[in-house]
């Protein structure tokens, strides 16, 4: 079975009603991104950060996978599919995808503030004063600006083995995730699906690139037929 590796970003979940990461003005749900998505923001105002992610978690629990998520899960009948996502939602898994790497963490998990190995399922709000077994404040299991991306190396290894690479719903501008496509073998076909594809320097460097200027669901529906002929 050929190896199909998917890099997915916020546009993948947009059709499920989840807001993309940030607007053109740099704000995310009315907040400066660094206030709610950086280690400095957490240290300065943990109550604000907890409230922000509590709202995102409630939003996620009310959302459902969209046709794009389901099409990727269906492709497992024909390919060995691995998904590397920048998204912190679980919609790929809920649609049935079996192998998903979350670069930026998972919203439905909490973790210790002092021990990255203490991770817990989390489907409720996290409150100030809730602690891990070592007595430190619980926080969202999210990789914030200013923190290492521990899953980057496993993700790069997957891309390096790809027979086909599909990039969906990402601006390819958030590093280090944007560099992942460069690990693909030189002869690997690369498909970039986005309604407003950002043909920036990172994208221009890619060879064997096919751009599909459609939403995730539309683009995957048309791409599926092409992939089955590979």
> Structural class, from helix and strand content?
alpha/beta
Strand order of the largest sheet: 5-4-1-9-10-11
The total number of structural domains is 2
Summarize the main sheet.
6 strands, parallel
Q: Roughly how much helix do the residues carry, as a percent range? A: 25-40%
* Overall pLDDT confidence: 90
What is the terminal-to-terminal distance?
11 Å
CATH architecture designation of the largest domain: 3-Layer(aba) Sandwich
Order of helices and strands: EHEEHHHHEHEEEEHEEHEH
Classified by CATH, the class of the largest domain is Alpha Beta
- Beta percentage is 15-25%
Count of extended strands: 11
Gyration radius (Cα, Å) is 18 Å
Shape: elongated
CATH topology of the largest domain: Rossmann fold
The named CATH superfamily of the largest domain: TPP-binding domain
What's the short story on this structure?
The chain has 230 residues and is of the alpha/beta class. 30% of the residues lie in helices and 21% in strands.
How do the helices and strands line up, and which of them pair or pack?
Layout: E1 3-8, H1 10-14, E2 27-28, E3 31-32, H2 33-36, H3 39-44, H4 46-62, H5 67-74, E4 80-85, H6 91-95, E5 100-102, E6 105-112, E7 119-121, E8 138-142, H7 152-160, E9 164-168, E10 190-193, H8 201-204, E11 209-212, H9 216-227
Parallel strand pairs: 1-4, 1-9, 4-5, 9-10, 10-11
Antiparallel strand pairs: 2-3, 6-7, 6-8
Describe this structure in words.
- By secondary structure, the chain is α/β, with parallel strands linked by helices.
- It has 2 domains: 1-16 and 65-104 and 150-229, Rossmann fold (3-Layer(aba) Sandwich), CATH 3.40.50; 19-62 and 105-142, SIR2/SIRT2 'Small Domain' (2-Layer Sandwich), CATH 3.30.1600.10.
- The protein has 9 helices and 11 strands.
- The strands form 3 sheets. Strands 5-4-1-9-10-11 form a 6-stranded parallel sheet, with helices on both faces. It has a 3-stranded antiparallel sheet with strand order 7-6-8, covered by helices on one side. Strands 2-3 form a two-stranded antiparallel ribbon.
- α5 (67-74) runs parallel beside α9.
- The longest helix is centred in the first third of the chain and has 17 residues, at 46-62.
